[in-house]
């Protein structure tokens, strides 16, 4: 049965849309597309610029041949607060009554100003005296209202809003997988998402992404943005390309990210008991940087792979025309898979 919604990922550099068809355990790619985000995108507070963003979304959906008026969107991870907390083993009714009071201790915003959701990740064995693990996710209501406004101006209805980390967990893992660390490298930021049993366990947003790499090349070689971007994606951090000149510029910028990855790996080792981290999964537009996987492996001593949300999709139709491009659409695919 075809999903009645499509995934809408409004990134700071690109807007991406994905629609999938789900029939039992079979999944297939129905529609996909991307377009450059105009101006400041959702960071803008100016009505005409938000209207331009809405028009871009409307045109993209039409050009991508998506025939649905319902979408699910993700909010930028840095705009939300995600916390894993431990509580005494409460019943669902007791937790529902106590959650606002408990969340107030962990959310750095007035509870009345946020949309608060929670999910029980684990409960202790009866009589063990252990604690339950609860994931809190809070997003400012004003942020959600802006998404609602833009989607409405685009002519669509909003089915749900969730964090990027939730979308990535759905797209790149399942309940039976061993724990993994997803590293989503966008233009403006890099998101670290620790996944356990298909659930978000920990998140961290780093204010460094592909744009910082491009800027480093522009500054060092006095190049225009377009040419610097071409150099970045052609040579990456490969030492044997262009005498390693690009690599030497990019490595210090990437070490900011790998330092945080190492912290996340340490967190996983200290909070997951006897469950071991299976590896690091990189995704997003900047994940295609030549030599990146090898560099992260070198710095962390952990196996690194390129995430592909379409890996288990039926190899037919549209997906055959887009080999290797799934990673770029990881968030949008996760949104489209939401049921």
Automatic annotation (TrEMBL):
InterPro entries: ATPase_NBD (IPR043129), FtsA/MreB (IPR050696), PilM (IPR005883)
Stored Pfam families: PilM_2 (PF11104)
Gene3D superfamilies per the UniProt record, alphabetical: 3.30.1490.300, 3.30.420.40
Protein known as: SHS2 domain-containing protein
Organism: Candidatus Curtissbacteria bacterium RIFCSPHIGHO2_02_FULL_40_16b
């Amino acid at each position: 049965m075809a999903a009645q919604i499509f995934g809408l990922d409004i990134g700071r550099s690109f807007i991406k849309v994905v629609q999938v068809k789900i029939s039992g355990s079979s999944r297939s790619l129905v529609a996909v597309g991307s377009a450059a985000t105009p101006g400041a995108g959702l960071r803008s507070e100016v009505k005409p610029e938000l209207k331009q963003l809405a028009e871009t979304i409307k045109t993209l959906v039409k050009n991508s041949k998506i025939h649905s008026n319902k979408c699910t969107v993700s909010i930028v991870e840095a705009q939300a607060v995600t916390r894993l907390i431990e509580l005494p083993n409460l019943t669902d009714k007791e937790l529902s009554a106590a959650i606002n009071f408990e969340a107030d201790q962990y959310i750095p915003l007035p509870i009345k100003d946020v949309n608060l959701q929670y999910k029980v990740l684990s409960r202790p064995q009866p009589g063990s005296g252990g604690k339950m693990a609860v994931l809190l996710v809070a997003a400012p209501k004003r942020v959600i209202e802006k998404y609602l406004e833009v989607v409405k101006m685009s002519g669509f209805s909003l089915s749900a809003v969730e964090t990027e980390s939730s979308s990535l967990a759905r797209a790149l893992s399942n309940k039976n997988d061993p724990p993994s660390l997803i590293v989503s490298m966008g233009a403006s930021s890099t998101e670290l998402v620790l996944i356990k049993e298909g659930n978000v366990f920990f998140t961290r947003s780093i204010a460094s992404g592909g744009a910082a790499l491009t800027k480093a090349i522009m500054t060092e070689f006095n190049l225009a943005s377009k040419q610097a971007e071409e150099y970045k994606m052609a040579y990456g951090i490969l030492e044997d390309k262009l005498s390693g000149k690009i690599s030497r510029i990019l490595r210090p910028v990437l070490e900011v990210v790998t330092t945080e990855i190492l912290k996340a790996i340490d967190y996983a080792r200290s909070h997951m008991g006897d469950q071991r981290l299976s590896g690091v999964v990189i995704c997003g537009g900047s994940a295609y940087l030549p030599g990146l996987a090898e560099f992260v492996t070198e710095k962390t001593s952990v196996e690194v792979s390129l995430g592909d949300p379409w890996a288990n999709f039926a190899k037919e139709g549209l997906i055959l025309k887009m080999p290797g491009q799934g990673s770029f659409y990881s968030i949008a695919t996760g949104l489209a898979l939401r049921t």
